[in-house]
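I have a small job for you when you get a moment. Can you supply me with one protein entry, sequence and fold together? It will help me judge whether the discrete encoding reads sensibly. Write everything out right here, beneath this request:
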Amino acid sequence: MADFSSKHCRPNLRLNVPKRSPCIDIPTLSSSSEGDLILDDVEKLQVLGHGNSGIVYQVRHKRTSYVHALKVVHAYFDPMTLRSVRREIDILRRTDSPNIVQFHGSFEAPSGDVGILLEHMDLGTLDTLLKNKGPFSESQVVAVARQVLAGLSYLHENKIVHRDIKPSNLLVNQNMEVKISDFGVSKVLSRTLDTCDSYVGTGAYMSPERFNPDSCGGNYNGYAADIWSLGLTLFELYVGRFPLLPAGQRPEWAALMCAICFNDPPALPESASDEFRSFMECCLKKESSERWTASQLLNHPFLSQQ
């Protein structure tokens, strides 16, 4: 596996879905689309991926020849989906960090489709890299941790909690730059501690207090919840699988709740350094108030390794 560095309208766009995915509708992009994205300026190259609510395309900007990712969400005026994608656009507009995927524009079409033009990260996600290349070395985990923590520190300083940090939401490019993406369930807080919806994001990476919000009076530190998710993510990169359940066990809700809320945090293999173990302990404290912040973790001895 390659080493990680530590550095920081008129629709002429036919977005055809591959034949293997006939269940996903082809977006209809109208010349009356609203937003700052000019659709005539981009051409579709290929499908990068798809999910229940939309598709991600690789597109080329005709004037600049730059390649971007175009995320098309099929909102169809569904209030929850529309609110989620508009929240993502709003947060992306606010951010300006080398550790956050870059936003280049958006549109809302009369069909109900919403598009977001983003920086193209050509190696995909850390989840994909893990599946294709296998577990990361400790030095590679260090490089990922530095970059994601820099992004989280920036977000948290700007009172933004991500709420869905996991390998599939961390993008990587050929330069091994790692950037945070997918802000659909993120939230801008009005103060340091605020009330957030507990059951948003991916259950497997939720912190204990999010499974049991009554334990903290319905209020919890969303920043600390991001740190827990990051800890599990880095742990998974190192051991090659989700660390809270036995290999092969399905991440069902009841099993996850027991593992997260009642079991001790997982222990790293003997091959891990003392600094790595200490770092994990700082991330995976059951009590959220005891977890280190992103800015504190950036100064942890684990990240000083080369």
Summary: The first strand starts at residue 42 and ends at 50.
